[in-house]
Amino acid sequence: MKPIYTKKHNNHNDLFALSYDQTADSKLAAGYRLRWTEEGLLGEREAETAGEKMGRNISLPKVNWLLVIIAASFLLLLGRAAWLQLYRGPYYQELAQYNRIRQQRIMADRGVIYDSERHILVDNIPVFYLQVIPADLMAREPKGMSNLAIIKAIGDILGEGAATDLDYLLMQYRQNTLAAYQPQTVADKIGYPQAMKLMLATKDMPGVTVGLSSQRQYRLPSLSSSHILGYTGIITPEEYERYQPAYALTDYVGKTGLEKIWEKQLRGRYGEKYIEVDALGKEKRVINELKKEDGYNLLLAINSALQSKLEQELSAQLTAVGASKAAAVALNPANGEIMALVSLPSFNSNDFAAKISPEIYQQLISNPNQPLFNRAVSGEFPTGSTFKPVVAAAALQENVVTANTLINSAGGLQIKDWFFPDWKAGGHGLTDIRKALAWSVNTYFYYLGGGYNDFTGLGVRRITDYAHLFGLGQPLGIDLPGEAAGFLPSKEWKESVKKEIWYIGDTYHLAIGQGDITATPLQVAAYTAVFANGGILYQPHLVKELLNSQDETAQIIEPKILRHDFIEEENVKLVRQGMRDCVTYGSCLSLDSLPVTSAGKTGSAQWSSDLSEKTHSWFTGFAPFENPEIVITVIVEEGGEATEAAVPVAKRVLEWYFGTRSH
Predict the structure, then answer these.
(1) Is 327 within the bounds of a domain?
(2) Among 108, 168, 382, 523, which is disulfide-ready with 268 (CB 3.0 to 4.6 Å)?
(3) Same domain, 509 and 433
(4) Is the same domain home to 486 and 580?
(5) Where in the cell is it found (predicted)?
(6) 261 and 348 together in one domain
(7) Could you give the 3-state DSSP secondary structure of residue 116?
């Protein structure tokens, strides 16, 4: 082994002298053995050539690893800085900006709704709300008042519910994010006395604001108007996803009725302003402002007096016959405008506008008569004999019969073991199409629909094809949500769903409006208007005009023709005359005493396999006969015979409309 320099004391008097001592294979204790730095780094030869040196030896691989770690750390820090600067820079810049400059929305006034006479049905009343910006409240605790004290102070004024909501809100937005700088509504629809107390209590609370908003007020001419007008409510997360970015999570939107369908027009366009805030998050000055645009006002075709009268008479008739559910529609046959639309039972839109109580809401949803359900547009019912004018028009158009075709009604038809009866024992004798409509002769329509012996009828396909032309089996497009399509059965449907073949009896039932066919009262009124106006199917609609905030006409809603010229004029006239005969000598005879001429069709529709259940009572008609101004359709669920329930309602309303009311 090569000699290694070691430090060694000798016995000379010079204690600081070094001597060279060659030792062979000499070793020091491991803990004290020192090697030259040069030997570790440069090797033995170079280490020997130098003078006296002292130090530790370090391996080159370790140094390399150290350099790699240092470089990696540096790159990591550099990357993190770049990520923060380039990718997250705008976020933190915006976060910092929110500490000084805030963006606030300026609420537009929601549009007013008028009836046809410009009487206000819906307007806005001022209400107060409490809003909190969580980031301000958590970052700047006011002197001498903790967040817990703030929560308690607000709870003392608004109640425990508001305190709980605020506590949850602060926990939810504990992190300092952009969302924490967005205003959150803690309570709304606050009364004036409470609002004044809140203003005093919160003036030094950071991020807490008492603001002025509006609440919808429904001036209902009748409760059934609620089904038309609808109501507004706080936006749901699902609605927010659909409506954003124009909406905030604190906004109110239309939930049902016209409020929902015409939401965009009623809402208008919100403005916005940029403000500079102080240390408490309170406004100091306005930096920039974009003006709001108030929503459009709606002018409806609804006649409030007619709406009230129709509801009044329908309610009275429900009591008279011991029923609980009914619906009625009145429309203008010349353009499809809805003049009145009633569904009973109903509800009060103001209950929802004022934040409905759990007790009232529970009563509504647990009521078996479903007061929230708009049966006039969403209810699907077997049409009964009110469907016969459609079958008659189809048979005339397809040359199955003519005005002179006579069929003997002997009380019904026998098909093997099955008997299909007329409603009159012994039948009506020789019957043409006008008499068949006037007296609702089932036998005649059995022939028209399914044929008999050598007489070929329309068959199911042609019946449903024409029913579709008259607007059945599809929504008509009224400006209300939840419109039902009704149902038109087919051979294929029955084989697929019921696993049964289609029998001739199914066609017979379809031809008289029984079996699986269903329609809404609105659809029955719409196809009745086709006979009233000479052959045009209009889209029913409630809104006539959009008005600006100064009540000037901004847009006229033009009538929309869905279909025309699908039934020849002579055939329409023949069916009209049959409906007129219903009034002059048939099942609608009680209407002959009206102050104007009229036409109509009755119907009693079985809806249950239990024949002891009372039928639905139908009437649909129009007046005056020569130049119709109004179509009226009435259904009383489980009301019994048409002449006992539906017809009296129509008669009293038409007497009032053309007689006692002032024009």
Answers:
(1) yes
(2) 108
(3) yes
(4) yes
(5) Cell membrane; Membrane
(6) no
(7) coil
Helix (H) or strand (E) holding 43: none
Name the nearest CA neighbour of 441 among 388, 516, 372.
388
pTM over cut 0.70:
yes
Quickly count helices (H) and strands (E) in the chain.
25, 23
Residue 372 belongs to a domain: no
Examine the pLDDT at 2 and tell me if it is beyond 70: no
pLDDT score, position 595: 95
Q: Are 206 and 280 in contact (CB under 8 A)?
A: yes
- Is 434 domain-assigned? yes
* Contact (Cβ atoms closer than 8 angstroms) between residue 428 and residue 434: no
CA distance 400 to 388: 15
pLDDT tens per residue across span 337-385 = 999 999 999 999 999 988 888 999 999 999 999 999 999 999 999 999 9
Cα atoms found within 13 Å of the Cα of residue 153, Cβ hemisphere only: 17
Q: What is the pLDDT of residue 84?
A: 58
Give 434: exposed, middle or buried? Use CB within 10 Å, 0-12, 13-18, 19+: buried
What are the tens digits of pLDDT across the range 418-452?
A: 999 998 888 999 999 999 999 999 999 999 999 99
Cβ neighbour number for residue 36 with a 10 Å cutoff: 21
Q: Is 389 domain-assigned?
A: yes
Nearby residues of 629 by Cβ (< 8 Å), 6 or more positions away: 332, 333, 334, 623
**Same domain assignment for residues 258 and 390:** no
Note whether 607 and 555 are same-domain residues: yes
Q: Do both 147 and 90 map to the same domain? A: no
382 CB contacts (<8 Å, ≥6 apart)? 513, 514, 515, 517, 518, 605, 606, 607, 616
Give the whole-angstrom CA distance, residue 617 versus residue 602: 8
Q: Which two tokens stand for residue 74?
A: 């540096």
- Residue 278 CA to residue 459 CA, distance in Å, equals 80
Task: Report residue 512: phi and psi, to 5°.
Answer: -110, 15
Which pair of structure tokens corresponds to residue 540?
A: 């029913």
Domain extent at residue 535: 306-359+382-660
State the pLDDT at residue 66.
79
328 and 238 inside one domain = no
Contact 448, 511 (CB under 8 A): yes
**Which residues fall within 8 angstroms of residue 284, CB to CB, at 6 or more apart?**
275, 276, 277, 278
- Domain final position from 300, 325, 341: 300
Sign of the dihedral through C-alpha 466, 469, 470, 471: positive
CB 309 within 8 A of CB 656: yes
User: Residue 433 to residues 407, 533, 576, 586: CA-CA distances in angstroms?
Assistant: 9, 20, 11, 13
Three-class SS state of 180: helix
Distance CA 176, CA 94 (A): 12
Number of domains in the chain: 3
Query: What was the pLDDT predicted at 129?
Result: 87
